[in-house]
Description:
Radius of gyration: 36 Å
Mean pLDDT: 77
Structural class: mainly alpha
Order of helices and strands: HEEEHHHHHHHEHE
Number of strands: 5
Number of domains: 3
Number of helices: 9
Helix content: 40-55%
Distance between the termini: 92 Å
Strand order of the largest sheet: 1-2-3
Largest sheet: 3 strands, antiparallel
Shape: flat
Amino acid sequence: MAAIEWALTGRNMWTDRAGRGAGDLVTRGEKYCQVGLEMAGFGGVVRATPSHTLTAGRYRSVQEGQAAIYHHLGTDESLLQLVLNAGAFTGMPPAEQKAFLFSLCGVSFTADEIASAVAEHVRRTGAAEELAREAARRSRSLMPKGINGDPGILEGKDVQDRIAGLEKALAGRDAARRDLRSLEAAIESRRKELETPGRRWPPGRRYCRKAARTRRRPTACRSA
């Protein structure tokens, strides 16, 4: 995978971001290294060092060949590096990780774009234009001020407050379940005590069998 990354980008885990240090990729005792691969619909890609050279399809210069590779793959240097080298992602600061994931998913929108899409959807149902405008206005009013499709939407106070509220509700539900299990265990233990034959009652009292037969609440009856 490191060889493919170097062939397509000119850098990998053993070089810096500018590709310096590629000389260390040469096997000891050899004079140079070369990596070649074939891309469908593009042609061969061959990168060699030292005297860094790149042949990419019909291009023979490093700059033109590199640009042609990115254009053919529909990507850029950063995305290609992250796809071919997992360590590149884990080594990024959290803010850059969020930005990358959002850009990868193509999440991009504004409140106006959402409102416009809502209005267009209402129009397609055959509703009047006035109703479409009202739907757009209401959808815009429901969105936080300044919302857009960048990682910042995860940091908004409203979102954080909702997350905190959900976490609190989940914690409360778990505590309630624990209390319920404890109560059920106590009830079961008490039931077994009441059904145990020859159960001892306090001195001067005996178990009222008549109450048990009629399924009434067990009571202690006075001795005759």
